[in-house]
């Protein structure tokens, strides 16, 4: 039987009414219903395939931080302004675009980092759900395992996660690895990042006060960050969904994207009401790591999209910046070459 349209409508109304005042504290599935951004992976033959979605607040902040904060000392540890953080939370919790057209002028990287971390830490179901908690800790408690044996155990566990959680986890591991790779400047090695993000990614309410349990969970996240590239390379791309699936509702729109990979080519893919998809063109730019992120574009003409020039009078124009391509995923805002 098909879905009950009244029930679907009521679910959407409930989620969006809740998000009018609070996006932070919603479950991952509810946050994705409110506002989401698509991410892409690249096959060995250069073909780009749709991989999934992450919450727009994660994508927007993640892009800004990769662009501006990879060398910022104490990033994710230094506090931002409480007032500005509240303004950002309100922007990301308010329709109709839930912060998609946010202009970062007047905000610092520490404001964005605090909002990013707060959203992850306030998710009630955590990035790795509670029912998978012990499974993700187990490889770190088994003695005499090689790193490759642990990697294989984690590959199996990551593959068995619910799809939204797996997509978000892999994106977060990619982002944290980017910052860890610059720890000689930003003073935030993977150990520090694991300690900061462990409560939102891998935690148990009964284990928070026990140092040994905390240490195991932190070491598990540390291992995932340090070996994140191994988990992406084994994703069975043939089993992924279609390139750009239709949004589940008018409010939960799929985003316009640009993705960059280590194949030195650029893919521009966007969805619209007509389901139009724009494909890729080559460019001469070296990608430094395994992932690149996807960039949201405003809805200008095709030439404007391909050139990367902002549309006149676009509310997003002044916020569009050039991305530092870090890995295979890329998030939000438009990239400018040159």
UniProtKB/TrEMBL annotation:
Signal peptide boundaries: none
GO biological process: regulation of cell wall (1->3)-beta-D-glucan biosynthetic process; regulation of fungal-type cell wall organization; signal transduction
Keywords: GTPase activation
SMART domains assigned to the protein according to its UniProt record, in alphabetical order: RhoGAP
Organism superkingdom: Eukaryota
Low complexity composition-biased segments: 315-325
Keyword Oxidoreductase on entry: no
Molecular function as annotated in GO: GTPase activator activity
Gene Ontology CC annotation, any one: medial cortex
UniProt domain Rho-GAP: residue ranges: 26-232
Basic and acidic residues: bias regions: 296-305
Polar residues biased stretches: 257-270
Disordered, as annotated region: 244-270, 291-338
Protein name: Rho-type GTPase activating protein Rga5
UniProt organism field: Schizosaccharomyces octosporus (strain yFS286) (Fission yeast)
């Amino acid at each position: 039987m098909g879905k009950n349209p009244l029930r679907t409508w009521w679910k959407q109304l409930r989620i969006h009414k809740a998000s009018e005042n609070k996006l932070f504290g919603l479950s991952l599935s509810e946050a994705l219903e409110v506002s989401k951004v698509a991410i892409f992976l690249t096959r060995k033959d250069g073909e780009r395939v749709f991989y999934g979605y992450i919450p727009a607040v994660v994508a927007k902040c993640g892009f800004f931080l990769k662009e501006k904060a990879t060398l910022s000392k104490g990033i994710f540890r230094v506090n931002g302004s409480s007032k500005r953080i509240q303004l950002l939370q309100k922007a990301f919790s308010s329709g109709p675009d839930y912060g998609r057209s946010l202009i970062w002028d007047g905000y610092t990287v520490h404001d964005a980092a605090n909002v990013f971390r707060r959203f992850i830490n306030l998710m009630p179901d955590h990035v790795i759900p509670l029912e998978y908690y012990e499974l993700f800790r187990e490889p770190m408690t088994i003695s005499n395992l090689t790193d490759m044996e642990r990697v294989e155990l984690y590959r199996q566990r990551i593959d068995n996660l619910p799809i939204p959680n797996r997509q978000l986890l892999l994106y977060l591991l990619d982002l944290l690895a980017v910052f860890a790779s610059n720890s000689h400047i930003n003073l935030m090695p993977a150990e520090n990042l694991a300690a900061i993000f462990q409560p939102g990614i891998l935690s148990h309410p009964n284990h928070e006060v026990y140092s040994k349990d905390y240490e195991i969970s932190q070491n598990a996240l540390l291992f995932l960050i340090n070996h994140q590239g191994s988990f992406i390379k084994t994703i069975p791309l043939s089993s992924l969904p279609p390139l750009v699936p239709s949004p589940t509702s008018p409010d939960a729109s799929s985003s316009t994207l640009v993705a960059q990979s280590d194949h030195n080519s650029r893919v521009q893919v966007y969805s619209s009401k007509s389901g139009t998809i724009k494909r890729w063109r080559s460019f001469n730019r070296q990608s430094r790591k395994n992932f690149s992120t996807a960039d949201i574009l405003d809805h200008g003409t095709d030439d404007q999209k391909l050139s990367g020039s902002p549309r006149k009078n676009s509310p997003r124009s002044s916020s569009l910046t050039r991305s530092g391509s870090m890995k295979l995923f890329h998030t939000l805002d438009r990239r400018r070459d040159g």
